Amino acid sequence: MMQTGNFNIIQDLTTGEEGGKVEFKQTTGQLERGMETLCAFLNGEGGTVMFGVMDNGKIIGQEVSDKTKREIAEAIRLIEPFATITVSYACVSDTDKQVIVLYAEEQRYMRPFTYKGRAYQRIESVTSVMPQDKYNHLLMQRGGKYSWEAMPNPDLHISDLDENAIIGAVRAGINCGRLPETTIREEIPVILEKFDLLHDGRLNNAAAVLFGRNLYDYPQCLLRMARFRGTTKEEFIDNQRLQGNIYVLLDTAMSFFFKHLSLSGKIEGLYREEKLSIPYKALRECCINAFCHRAYHRPGGSVGIAIYDDRVEIESSGAFPPDMTLEKLLGGHSSEPPNLIIANVLYKSELLESWGRGIRLMMDECRNVGIPDPDFHTDGSSVWVVFRYKRESAGQPPDKYPTSTRQVPDKPPTNIIRLIEMIGEHTCSLKGLMEMMELKNRENFLKNYLNPSMEAGLVEPLYPDLPKHPKQKYRLTEQGKTLLQDYLKKK
User: Fold this and answer.
1) Where are the beta strands (DSSP E) in 300-378?
2) Spelled out in words, what is the top-level CATH class assigned to the domain 2-130?
3) What whole-number distance in Å separates Cα of residue 260 and Cα of residue 253?
4) Which CATH fold would you assign to the domain 132-406?
5) In the CATH hierarchy, which fold is given to the domain comprising 414-490?
6) What average pLDDT does the chain have?
């Protein structure tokens, strides 16, 4: 809001020294520092930033052009969440210069604020970057309609969401009895409204996190996965990154575990039954918690999975609630999801089984197979969980099978045997494989031949991170070569 300032009021403000609620700047050449201080005032008890005033309070004014006003308006738009800043201009006597006054009222229920993605605080006359633990504390206090997940994104449209994922979540909710059967017959906007993802025709950030397809504006919707050789990060065997919504990332995470943690496996028809060196349910629950409870407001945040010869580490940005000690976390505690909207949708679609029981489920699953309880850690900005297992139980050693630790299936079906025979020592395109096998239906070939072979760890693409690469081809993994050799010996 812009208004003409009262010069007498400005004189009163400049009679004292700079402090916790007033900041002087000589010109808007210091606009960046001034905006950082204004952000700090918003995170405190409010305050005023004046341009055209020297550090000692002497009023000198500055020239104000249309460009100056545009720069100020643009800088104010970089403060998040939206805050009403009063902009005043007061003429300096006997000059063509003006003093520019930016005033921010206290915004207790919308803190923390950021400027260009960073939060600031004011202590006496000093503006500094806000510590992460304080930022997290303020963010959790804000919650409700002012939380990051609830913020509307005017650039996000229903066409940017994956309709199949929405319908899939609804079907899962109906099957488990958490949604009424009539939900499946409702229009997508109505479903989104009931999920608390759409208000007054505007989608919020939670909608993108849960169901987004095009997530260019959400770099934090990222999953990092690595399989390291040995017990350090000196050398990795497999390294992948994927951006997507929660449902896509969860499926990808579990596929990565199956690829690198299989103890044993067999394929009956098109279905695979495998046991992992760390219980599937424990890993799944940990990943769901990581995606559900992480700090999405940090654009640089992500979920990371690191697999070593003796442990698995799952890390996410965020922190435990301020009053949640590790002892309380491991014992009985009520659920306090920081992302209530996201947690509610995951619960209704049966991904989140029961709030507040995830930690106990992970521990019970590990105890059932005789491995140590998972370790839980936090440094105030990240949370990570460590699952430990014995190396000899982790399938074949990584130096024997560098692309996967999965053992060769006992009785692979004839369709897979036929495919790996065709590939042999060659590297083949999808079209070439179909021609060699005299198959014309692409969907049938993918469903019954190529995809099961890749899921079994027998065939791999040349460009795993770019499945639609124009030069994409396929070859046998070390496991596929071993299976082929064994089959030919027995033939």
Assistant:
1) 303-307, 311-317, 375-378
2) alpha beta
3) 11
4) Heat Shock Protein 90 (3.30.565)
5) Arc Repressor Mutant, subunit A (1.10.10)
6) 83
